[in-house]
Fold:
Amino acid sequence: MSSVASLQELNERIIACDRCTRLRTYCAEVAHVRRRAYADCEYWGRPVPSFGDENARVLALGLAPGAHGSNRTGRPFTGDGSGDFLFPVLHEAGFASQAKAHSRDDGMKLTDLWISAVVRCAPPANKPTPEEQRNCAPWLDLEISLLADLRVVVCLGRIAFDGLLAHAYRVNRGKSVLQPRSQFAFAHGAEYTLPSGLTVIASYHPSLQNTNTGKLTRAMFLDIFWRARALAGLR
Ligand code: SF4
Structure:
């Protein structure tokens, strides 16, 4: 994949990507049929670009767009239950200008934070195939190379954690500087430092399944983002 000059150009290329036939077909179908509650909405229906502060020191890395969340609104974690849990925490931790995210035109501004995902198209049942994850991986490689001030990556869920580590192994291929994969265990709050100096923090994903059951509480999630601030050298 050829290089890109800016995060804006990267987002434009992501929006035009059609590498995964199954996902592109699914997103277009969802956008056409729509959920009854959103019957009056014009769905985005395309790959979802990242957004945030181009000088971010912290990256929040999710799994993939929700079919009726980001696939509808066109912005990560916007317009669904995961975002309703995430943005109040980001607001309290000083990363987000407002606690509510309902559309890509709602005025939300992020400071010191960039939000992305390992897969940019909504997958059926929230389950991208390994091939689809590999297809989308070059976008993450380019994105991280363009985030010049990046110090910390918060991985939201195990698939994001695995995707970030896969990225680390790709960029360090042939250098023998990374520990064996078995040394990187996923656990909420686990931290690892990569050879580049980047710190990785693992977190449970703010899915309704985790937040409604109390597996991930607001206090636990807030601690993750306060810790990210501290590790990034932010006040
Ligand atoms: S998931 Fe990624 S690689 Fe696949 S079509 Fe969407 S943007 Fe392209």
